[in-house]
Specification:
The chain has nine helices and 14 strands. The chain is of the alpha/beta class. It folds into two domains: 240 residues, 3-Layer(aba) Sandwich (Aspartate Aminotransferase, domain 2), CATH 3.40.640; 101 residues, Aspartate Aminotransferase, domain 1 (Alpha-Beta Complex), CATH 3.90.1150.10. It has a seven-stranded mixed β-sheet with strand order 2-10-9-8-5-3-4, sandwiched between helices. Strands 11-12-14 form a three-stranded antiparallel β-sheet. The structure holds pyridoxal-5'-phosphate. Pyridoxal-5'-phosphate binds next to helix 3.
């Protein structure tokens, strides 16, 4: 077996150790004589998996006790709808900060629900940056302020978060959750599809401050209410049990690695390695993101012609590096180096980038 150097944007790399552990107990979980996939979601064996995932996430992210952690389905994309359906009251206005395709999609859903406005946008520079905090328009009457903490497609990331006062700050953290310590108490709600930094696709994590549950309208459909899932410990209906199980395994592994702070250090090293090659390439590689807005998770860059780009992708692929093609809206290349992408993969990419430049 030869494992690829996996730079996929999502679903993305999982820690090899986690996959091995899941493999070892695939046929017989915890002496049940069944796979965890075959357990009832109402059984005590599954219950301990479910609660362990929740407790570990609370511990690793230092989530305060006045927040609920929910395990939902429908991806981050369903959260684009559930956020305004639950939190945007009649006559209120929701404030969206536009930093890329995902924040635009979140805004588009909110527009179907109620009134919105745009508190800042970097669309005019093709989303190469994050707005300056001082340039963001926040009104104390906003229903909430929505941001995308890491822009997976453009390779930009918020380095600091805006102070929104009493207005709840809501963040789509799909592509950088758990990659660095954050102060959860600054946020009203955080959501993330698991398939980038947390585990496999199929489960979406929602972290919600409990007072916001009071905003859910009575007449909202049951499955779309945060309150339904908060009241039932995310067991109102059958949850994605295997995804939650793998999430718990990833979180155990993160804890063994020394937690989020030590991951953050490693992530910084990994990203710097690649950015250094870009910056010292005399324009052979061009970073898409402005230096002060660069993402440590998704590194986006272009080469100077289509031919070079195609050669770069083909040669890197021949060396076992996959997923380096950029998103169609940016073009060029993108290296997604989430938590589970090992340092060795980044070193291999760095070495290849240096060599490719030399040869071309
Ligand atoms: C991948 C991604 C999404 C979409 O997630 P789904 O789970 O496919 O709905 C949304 N936001 C961000 C920032 C993403 O990276």
């Amino acid at each position: 077996m030869k494992r690829a150097f996996n730079f996929n944007a999502g679903p993305a790399a999982l820690p090899l150790e986690v996959l091995k552990r899941a493999q070892a107990e695939l046929l017989d979980f915890n002496n049940t004589g069944m796979s965890v996939m075959e357990l009832s979601h109402r059984s005590k064996d599954y219950d301990s998996v479910h609660n362990r995932a929740k407790e570990l996430l609370m511990e690793l992210m230092e989530i305060p006790s006045n927040y609920d952690v929910l395990f939902l389905q429908g991806g981050a994309s369903l959260q684009f709808a559930m956020v305004p359906l639950n939190l945007l009251g009649e006559g209120q206005v929701a404030n969206y900060i536009l930093t890329g395709v995902w924040s635009q999609k979140a805004l588009d859903e909110a527009k179907l629900v109620g009134q919105t406005r745009i508190g800042a946008s970097t669309k005019e520079n093709n989303y190469t940056s994050i707005p300056k905090l001082s340039e963001i328009d926040i009104d104390p009457n906003d229903a909430y302020v929505h941001i995308t903490s890491n822009n997976t497609i453009y390779g930009t990331q918020w380095q600091e978060f805006p102070d929104t006062g009493n207005v709840p700050l809501i963040a789509d953290m799909s592509s950088d959750i758990l990659s660095k310590p954050i102060d959860v108490s600054k946020f009203g709600l955080i959501y993330a599809g698991a398939q980038k930094n947390l585990g496999p696709s199929g489960v979406t994590v929602v972290i919600i401050r409990q007072d916001l549950l009071e905003r859910t309208p009575e007449n909202l459909l049951t499955m779309l209410k945060y309150t339904t899932h908060a009241k039932s410990n995310s067991l109102f209906n059958t949850p994605p049990t295997f995804s939650i199980y793998l999430l718990s395994k990833v979180l155990e592994y993160v804890q063994e690695q020394g937690g989020v702070a030590s991951l953050a250090k490693q992530n910084e090293l990994k990203a710097q390695m690649i950015y250094d090659v870009i910056d010292s390439s005399d324009g052979f590689y061009n970073g898409h993101a402005q230096a002060d807005s660069r993402s440590r998770m998704n590194i986006t860059f272009t080469l100077n012609s289509d031919e070079l780009t195609q050669a770069f992708l083909a040669e890197s692929k021949a060396r076992g590096m996959v997923g380096l093609n950029g998103h169609r809206s940016v073009g060029g290349c993108r290296a997604s180096i989430y938590n589970a992408v090992p340092v060795e993969a980044c070193e291999a990419l760095r070495d290849f980038m240096i060599e490719f430049r030399k040869n071309n």
